[in-house]
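Weekly structure sync, notes
Attendees: PL (lead), two postdocs, one rotation student
Agenda item 3: pending single-chain targets
PL asked that the sequence for the first pending target be pasted directly into the notes so everyone works from the same version. It is reproduced below exactly as submitted, 201 residues in total.
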Amino acid sequence: MKVNLTWNSAQNGIFRNADGYYVFRSEVSGGPYSLLETVPVSSAGPSNQTISTIDQPGIGTWFYVVQAFRNHPKALSQYTNEFAITVTNIFTISNALASTPPSNGLIQTAVAGPNISNGQSPIRIFLNLNKPAKVTLSIFALTGEQLFHTEIEADAGSNTLIWDVKNNVQSTVASGLYLYVLRVNDGLTQEIRKGKIAIIH
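Predicted structure, written out during the meeting:
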């Protein structure tokens, strides 16, 4: 299910003449935050923004912040104040719609934490499995070009895959938004998880 966030740049202290916004989430108040979405300025104007495409993870409280950006010249604003959203159960929640329950399949959890890099630090994908399986990680540009691919034999429990933010010819990728795709296969069942990664030099 989806979460609706609305913010006003005048009230939250981020600049009005932005080209877009980054939306971040954390399980802990004050961060560290992981990037969820890049939001263009809406037709309603930069001082009145809404995003409704964020998946709320599950029962518990999550903390969201927004950061504005300009392209010319490049600039980032300060974070907004935190939006705290609490899920009390999968049917009734406060300030958001219901979320899906935890997976009972191969994948318990899969998350890039954090999923933002300055181009110097690698991205780590943390994967928790219910049983041993073959795992492949692919990184794609928004154009669909595959930039990275790796495969491991993962154990039941916690596993970590690392992307060094380089492409197939070992050059550091440019600033931008990238997609990761995890495929998990135990020989009988395959599950897929997808997510976003931001590189900001």
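Discussion points:
- The radius of gyration is 18 Å.
- Helices lie at 9-12.
Action: rotation student to compare against the earlier draft before next sync.
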